[in-house]
Amino acid sequence: MSTVSSFYDLKPLDAEDKPFDFAQLKGKAVLIVNVASKCGFTPQYKGLEELYQKYHAQGLEVLGFPCNQFGHQEPGTQEEIATFCQKNYGVTFPVLKKIDVNGDNADPVYKYLKDKKAGLLGFKGIKWNFEKFLIDKEGNVVDRWASTKSPEAIGPVVEKHLK
Residues 68, 38: contact at Cβ < 8 Å? Predict the structure, then answer.
């Protein structure tokens, strides 16, 4: 992690185990969400896809990171996850490789995000599936929302960071 000095230094793996270089996101707003297919919040995929469709042309990227750390609600393989997202919610935004978001094996992306933007009362851990982080066009982590905050509710904040 010591080599990560900015958001754009991160290179998580995509669904095909290839590096997804965040340097390609420079100048874009990015919404990062830890996702799961068998969660009460799973219908948020629909709202995330709607945000992506509405604002992608204006510079929004949405990235989903499947995670099986909360109630084992993302047990599938990469192929099963991709098929589920496409078939049930028409997801077209990138859904990257399944990762851990908490603990010793937490992906560097989530170590970075949690370090830059703590949650309620300074809690740095991820509490559940579908927590959301917004990164502005300069690579700053500017907002963080709990799972209960719907994609529709954060739309105005996302839009503000696209101007």
Answer: no
Find where tokens 């502005």 sit: 136
Query: What does the block give as tokens for 39?
Result: 């969660």
Quick check: 97 and 67 in contact, CB under 8 A? no
Q: Determine the distance from the C-alpha atom of residue 45 to the mean position of all C-alpha atoms in its chain, rounded to a whole number.
A: 11
Of residues 54, 67, 55, 84, the one with CA closest to residue 147: 67
Catalytic residue annotation: 39
Dig out the tokens for 111 from the structure: 């170590």
Chain segment 71-113, per-residue pLDDT in tens: 999 999 999 999 999 999 999 999 999 999 999 999 999 999 9
Looking at the chain, the number of H-run helices and the number of E-run strands are: 4, 4
Cβ atoms of residues 39 and 127 within 8 Å: no
Q: How far apart are CA 33 and CA 17, in angstroms?
A: 19
Separation of alpha carbons 84 and 98, rounded Å:
14
Q: How many other C-beta atoms lie within 10 A of the C-beta of residue 72?
A: 9
> pTM of the prediction?
0.95
